[in-house]
Predict the structure.
Amino acid sequence: MDYIILQPSNDPFQSFYLPASPDGHAFQARVDLRYLTGPDLWVLSISDAVTAQIYVNQIPVICSYEELNDLLFPFRYLFQGSGIGSFFCLKGTETPSTQNPSRNNLHAFQLLWGDRYV
């Protein structure tokens, strides 16, 4: 599986349209990143860009440090157990000012998307 490195900005609502083919079922995934001011965190949503079917809705973007944390692991039951894919948040080349992405430092993290469950 190949991973795509998302290039987010600090815009509080961002959408990415990415190819996905879990279980051989190809579709165009819409990956939304939204910043929530109250808890000071980013959340991730994934839907089908054509049908608007929501698969993942507003899960917190939490950074992996010691072990890889696949944020989509709990959704592996989707598509007959093939999952919706894998999504990782990793510390980037800079040292971020917070452990997890916050309002002004999302660019300090690397966001990786893969369309198959690892």
In short: The mean pLDDT is 87. The radius of gyration is 14 Å. The CA atoms of residues 87 and 113 lie 5 Å apart.
